[in-house]
TrEMBL record:
Residues 2-125 form the Dihydrodipicolinate reductase N-terminal domain. GO terms for cellular component: cytosol. Its EC number is 1.17.1.8. (S)-2,3,4,5-tetrahydrodipicolinate binds at residues 156, 165-166. Keywords: Amino-acid biosynthesis, Cytoplasm, Diaminopimelate biosynthesis, Lysine biosynthesis, NAD, NADP, Oxidoreductase. It comes from Amphritea japonica ATCC BAA-1530. Signal peptide: none annotated. It is found in: Cytoplasm. It comes from the Bacteria. NAD(+) binds at residues 8-13, 35, 98-100, 122-125. CDD domains: DHDPR_N. This is 4-hydroxy-tetrahydrodipicolinate reductase. Belongs to the DapB family. Homotetramer.
């Protein structure tokens, strides 16, 4: 039985991850962690997640429960994720990370932990989005430089990072297939007399509204036609199932930085 710990246990994804662990075979909830200031410390993690008593009391510090799990699933915030990585590396634990919104420096720091421990890091854990990454690279390769590329994403009004991690990964998939560097060609929002669009740019549009779980569209457009590749998530369970699958896949793996393409065996 693989024991999984969940950080951000009272968050939207934390609660859904606990629900997914409870429903999956071969895994069990080992620990649930919230911020040290939370009023939920001591409460049963299953009850907080809405899936009934699990016999796991929520704690306010990861350090307290290092003996209680094999793999940590972390969907929190960049600084918390990096501090959890350091603790897990020190104690020989594996980690599945879904946190988005990392700066370039934070992402480099995260990447370096792959030399010390097994890590799965993915901006989106759903099977559908990971298939889209492949489809997008194939579409970009086939369509080439004649098609303008724009990426439109919509999320719930609580989301704090923009563009979404998934939109950025989609941009990277397209840019890579077209031989471009996303850091050079990304345009994040447009306003004023900015001139006509350049051929190389990849534009990002962010919408934040209501309770949308996560919609992503990549638009390829040229004279006379346009193609749209769209993914719509209607439940966070699609991400949580992916995260739990990644945790099962990661247990017992050699150190290294992996993503969902590895977990789902989608890599060419
Ligand atoms: N890869 C994927 O498939 C997906 C990734 N995500 C990403 O996961 C992350 C979380 O999303 P979501 O669950 O909606 O967000 P929430 O705000 O609902 O949850 C985040 C949780 O992390 C906790 N947290 C934040 N900062 C700290 C800290 N410094 N120390 C300890 N705990 C902390 C928060 O605690 P508190 O409330 O007490 O502040 C909160 O419970 C985001 O980055 C999001 O983009 C989301 C869905 C899918
Ligand atoms: O914050 C969210 O909710 C989501 N975040 C991820 C992202 O930034 O891409 C994945 C998903 O779209 C939901």
């Amino acid at each position: 039985m693989i024991r999984i710990a969940v950080t951000g246990a009272a968050g939207r994804m934390g609660k859904t991850n606990i629900e997914a662990i409870q429903a999956a075979e071969g895994v069990q909830l080992g620990a649930a962690i919230v911020e040290a200031t939370s009023s939920l410390i001591g409460a049963d993690a299953g009850e907080v997640a809405g899936v009934g008593k699990q016999g796991v009391a929520i704690v306010g510090s990861l350090a307290e429960v290092m003996d209680d799990f094999d793999v940590l699933i972390d969907f929190t915030a960049p600084k918390a994720t990096l501090s959890n990585l350091a603790l897990c590396a020190e104690h020989g634990k594996a980690m599945v990370i879904g946190t988005t919104g990392l700066s370039e420096a934070e992402r480099a720091e995260l990447t370096s932990f792959g030399e010390k421990m097994p890590v799965v890091f993915a901006s989106n854990m759903s099977v559908g989005v990971n298939l889209c990454f492949k489809l997008l690279a194939e579409a970009a390769q086939a369509l080439g430089d004649d098609y303008d590329v724009e990426i439109i994403e919509t999320h719930h009004h609580h989301k704090v990072d923009s563009p979404s991690g998934t939109a950025l990964s989609m941009g990277e998939a397209v840019a890579g297939a077209l031989g471009r560097d996303l850091r050079q060609c990304a345009v994040y929002g447009r306003e004023g007399q900015i001139g006509a669009r350049t051929k190389e740019e990849i534009g990002f549009v962010t919408v934040r509204a209501g309770d949308v779980v996560g919609d992503h569209t990549v638009l390829f457009a040229t004279e006379g036609e346009r193609i749209e590749i769209t993914h719509k998530a209607s439940s966070r369970m699609t991400f949580a199932k992916g995260a739990v699958r990644a945790a099962g896949w990661l247990a017992g793996k050699e150190k290294g930085l992996y993503d969902m393409q590895d977990v789902l065996d989608l890599r060419d």
